[in-house]
Each structure stands twice: as structure tokens, then as C-alpha cells.
Amino acid sequence: MALCASIISLLCFCILSVLELRFHGSKKERFFKPMLMPLLIVFYLTSALAMGRDIRYLLVPALIGGFLGDTFLLRDEYFIPGLLSFLAGHIFYIIDFWRNIKVTWLRPIPVIVILMIYLLYMILVVQKLFPGMDPRAKAPVSLYIGIILAMSFSSYLMYMTGKTTGRMVTWVGTMLFIVSDTILSFNIFHKKSGTWVMPTYLAAQFLIVLGALL
User: Fold this and answer.
1) Helix (H) or strand (E) holding 25
2) Which CA distances in Å does 87 have to 12, 32, 46, 111, 155?
3) Which three-class secondary structure state does DSSP give residue 188?
């Protein structure tokens, strides 16, 4: 039963993802987009049950944050609630990742090097993004950038304390999340092309969940 539900929910997620990408920006998107994260939640829970894996329950509110963010961002006037929803989702991801980190297993040099890369990325994005931006948006956007980078860095630490395929897949997913949100930020504040926002976002969420199952 759980395996059947897992297959059906994954199939529905894939179909609706294709439809979302096909009708992105149109009125039809309002039907497809909000259904994606709930389907991913069902896929994760039923797959974990079918595979006999422990359920990492904090992934569920993280995906709910994505669902709320997707829904709010369908309208420009709800940008801040959407941002806060994704922010909450990233915080749940961070907590989940840290629950799976063995700090004593970490090697300081690789950790410092990767941390420096993340910080450099943040500096470069801020330098390119902030000119011409509404001053009132700079603080929440800075906070969001910091949190999403912390989320991805946490997944890296989780991978470093247990170099499994699943943890690597999750780390790749978090990096795609950074790519997606970076493109989205430039699309919103500088009217750059946002073509790759949804493909990278959907791949990011799926890989994070898939990594938790592997």
C-alpha cells in the first residue's frame, strides 16, 4: 500500500512539475504550483514507510514552508509572506541537518575552506544585487541569503560526517536551491531572466527528499 502510494505520488509530482514548467507565469500555474510540495511530502512519507526507513519528521514542515512560499509568490503583493515561508522552511532543514551531524568527526580545514566559499558567494551576490534595490528590502533579503547559505553549509557538514550517496544528493539539492533563489532574486529586483528558477527549485526540493531516502 505504501509503495503504491509512493509511486503514484511521485508520478503525479513529475507530471505536475512538467505542467508547471509548461504553464509557468500563466493563470493555470495557480492550480499546478501549490500541489507540488504536498505531493513531495506524500512521496517522502510513503517511500520511507515502504523502505522501512526512519522518518525525519522535520523535513515535513520544511516542505510545508515551500508549499506556503510557492502559494504566496503566485502574487507579487505577497512577496514578504512568501519569503518568510521559505525562510521558515530553510530553518527546519537546518535543524534536521544538524540533528544528523557528528561534530567530532569534522575536519577543520575542509570545513573552513567551504565556509569561505559560501561567504564569498554571499558577498558577490550582495554586491551585484543591492545596487538599485529598495533599501527596505535589503535587510530581509540579506537575512534570507544568509539562512539559505547556512542551510546548504549544514548539509555539507552532514555529508562530511557520513559520506553516503544520500547525503551527497541532499547537498547537491541545497546548492541547486541557492542557484534557484539567486536567479529569482535577480529576476525580482533587476528584471533578469527567471527561466531557470522553477527547474532548479523543483530539482532542489526533490533531491533533498531523495537524499533522505537513499
Assistant:
1) none
2) 26, 22, 26, 24, 16
3) helix
Distance from C-alpha of 81 to C-alpha of 142, rounded to nearest angstrom = 16
Distance of CA 212 to the CA centre of its chain: 13
DSSP per-residue codes, 42-105: HHHHHHHHHHTPPP-TTHHHHHHHHHHHHHHTTSGGGHHHHHHHHHHHHHHHHHHHHHT--GGG
pLDDT digits (tens, 9 = 90+) for 121-143: 999 999 998 887 888 888 888 89
Coil/strand/helix, residue 39: helix
Q: Other CB atoms closer than 10 Å to residue 25's CB: what's the count?
A: 8
Distance CA 41, CA 46 (A): 9
pTM of the full predicted structure?
0.93
| Maximum separation of any 2 CA atoms in the chain, in Å | 54
The dihedrals phi and psi of 161, each to the nearest 5 degrees, come to -95, 10
Answer yes or no: are the C-beta atoms of 149 and 117 closer than 8 Å.
no
Region 13-41: what's the mean pLDDT? 90
| Burial profile 37-53: b = 16 or more Cβ within 10 angstroms, e = fewer | bbbbbbbbbbbbebeee
- Cα separation values, 198 from 7, 69, 86, 167, 204, Å: 23, 13, 14, 23, 10
